[in-house]
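User: Can you write out an input/output pair for a complex, sequences first and structure second?

Assistant: Here is one pair. Inputs:
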Amino acid sequence: MKQFLIFLIFLLSIGESQAQTLIMGTVKDAKAKPVIGASISIKDSYDGTSTDSLGNFSFKSSESGEILVLFSAIGFGIDSVKIVLTGAALNLNLVLKEKLNALNAVTITAGSFEASDSKKGVVLSSLDVATTAGAVADVYAALQTLPGTQPASGESGLFVRGGAATETNTYFDGLLVKNPFNTQLPDIASRGRFSPFMFKGTTFSAGGYSAVYGQALSSALILESKDLPEKTTTDISLMTVGGGLDQTIRFKNSALSFGGSYINLKPAYSVFKQATDWNHEPTSAGGTITYKLKVAKTGMLKSYTEYSKSDVSLNTADLNTQSKSFFSNGNKNLYTNLSYQDYIGNDWKINTGFSASNNSDNGEQAINNYGRTDRLIQAKATVTKYIGQLSTIKFGSDFLSSHRDESWNGLSRAYNDRLTSAYVESDIFLSNDLVARVGLRAEHSSFLNQNNVAPRVSLAYKTGKGSQVSFAYGEFFQNPDDQYLVQTNQLDFQKATHYMANFQKMKDGQTFRIEAYYKKYNDLVKSAPNLNNKGYGYAKGIDLFWRDKKTFNGVDYWISYSYLDTKRDFSNYPSAVTPEFGAKHSLNIVYKQFFSKLKSYVGATYSIASGRPFYNPNATAFMSDKTKPYQNLSINVSYLTSVFGKYTVIYASVSNLPGFKNVYGYHYSNDGQFRESVQPPALRNIFLGMFITIGDNTYKN
Amino acid sequence: MKKNIKNIIAIVFILLTGTTLKAQDAKYIGAMQSGLKMFSEAKTGADYVAASNQFERIGTQVKTEWLPFYYAAYTQLINNTTLTNTDEKDAAMDKAQELIDKAEAINPKESEIFSMKGYIKFMKIYVNPMARMQSGMGAAITDLETAKALNPANPRPYFILAQNAFYTPEAFGGGKNVAKPKFTEAAAKFDAFKTSNPMMPNWGVERNASLLVECK
């Protein structure tokens, strides 16, 4: 009995009188740099400590026998080591491997500028796209301040690295948009149809983009729409050019938005002197319906439908007869898309989409009636498999059915094409610092009865904290323009091959990028002597970008510069020359500042570009003449206030404040006797708007 | 005698399990107290990280208590305020988020946890307010409203919302005038608030008072 009691006391005392073992050592990363703030612990025990500023640690443990030491730190993985505690002091030299994660992993940046709010390490935010001065919330105009693009001209769209406007295509939630702009008028660029406020992510690729996208020789603009809006709101906009009303209703797992707008440029144009002789100033009316539904935990269904109708007429000068020539246009545009994405299990993702559009233009040109209809139906599905932490492989297919018909005084012609594509692409992370993207895209056009196979490869290597180099190579195919396809199917795909090298450094609110590229064009369509694919060309250059939010308190500015050397023989050109969209030097300075006391955002954009070549029939060489340089300084102010207690933004913008007289080119009469300059419709444009939000009094940009 | 031995074995068993339970409890409380001491004495970011690591170790070991993960997240949040590099700030807030998620998994109906969740979301927004304000505010406010609903006596969600209003520019619906009645409301809640246990969250009263003074 006595023995038993002793045994009992012995048992009870175990907890209090164990031997303590001193465990010390260091934690370093793979490059032998100390890891600060790493946690060291013993499995199934409270014992442990953290490393100091030299990566050293030491602690005592009352455990004994074989134990597992766990160690981890932010930005690193977790690792363990088995040791035996005997009471004797231990010294451990531990090495932590960097965790593969999106925060510190290298990203492929060659060719692309991404604007996003959710992703890390992007150069722009989606708000940047919407608030760039001079752009007046036009996505395309905002992107013209990025390197690789040309400043505004009389033609709609983006001219990227020596490419024509038709070489840039727009994708909305992965789906090609056939008519992303309002109708092009003679020598007057049109705005994009989509509001930048609809998108949470905008990726502008000046080349070397993913195999998921096709049918763009030069550039892809990839727009990703926002997810569920947070609240039920009513948005009212009153502008010098019209007004709009949008209602968003938020349900538990879904949201419905619908709205309408009416735009009439007549009042604004009557105030500001117009170089253009308007007959009926542009008017348009339209409506949109958006529905978004969260399906289960991870699925998202989005649909967007837009209809608009616009009318315009004007007189242009007919230089041959020295008289006015009438032009009118009535446009009806219907666009709808439906997309669904979801995760299946832990490592599969599907993206599917369907879109349809119908765009018709009718009007008169001089004494002739013309008509044009574009119809497009697209279905697309992509499956992504995640491998490990970051690597992916995706494959998918898309089907594009396009129809175009044109009429001229009762005569008509049309074509139908079914473009079937399949693609596969893999992002392979060889380490946190090195990624390779390898892709392949194949297309078949039923109308051309031709196939193409386009390989694409990108590499990115992280050279240091915040700095990396990227390389990209890719082949890109695009159908000939509609104007040629309605005439013949005896043509082949046009082809561009991109090579580019990029260096990027991002640190504490500052970004520096430099990119050199070479682009080779083959099989461009020539219209003389007959339609053929014998056109060719090249573009090479250097793009620079510098953004700084740090140096001046509260000031955010960026500078972009593009050097372009390009020549091509295409269209009706007699030889390879620099085309009219080939300004050699372009420079943009974009400035933004928020004045808290004045509750105002102020922005300014200054652009300067060297002259553009134009065709002068009197000159000895083709396209040897150049316009004078282009300059523009635009400013905008957004004043945040409340009207009747509702959150309100008052917006004012002035484009071309100093009144630079810009000339985009010249038109000549057939005999070369007379010429007329191509210039913007007005020297300056002033825009005023008031945007009221009801239902959300707080925290809205 | 045989019966006696049986009884003794039973007594020993009861005593032993009782002691180990007590020992576990004492160990937990001791470890928490040392963590809270590290927290209260912390001066640098590294000190807060060390405290956070301590709390995370406790949470991982004890498994059934939400308080260690709660403090691990809170100390990581304080660590974030000592950092200047935005990537590091983001990493600290991501870590805080991961820790508070673990606390929530243990106790999904705790007002203090929802307060911290909302606070972490605000801090995430402050890393890049221009880009994140519009999309992030709603979710943060939802968490704090949930915290209020779970325990209307908890002053912290009131304080966190008041503080957010204080630091939000007037132009965006914030400012001192908006914040002042919120701080006053929070102050009343702080006055009435009693903790059941000295380890329970009981922070914010001083900061609430000093920011209220700044509103005047």
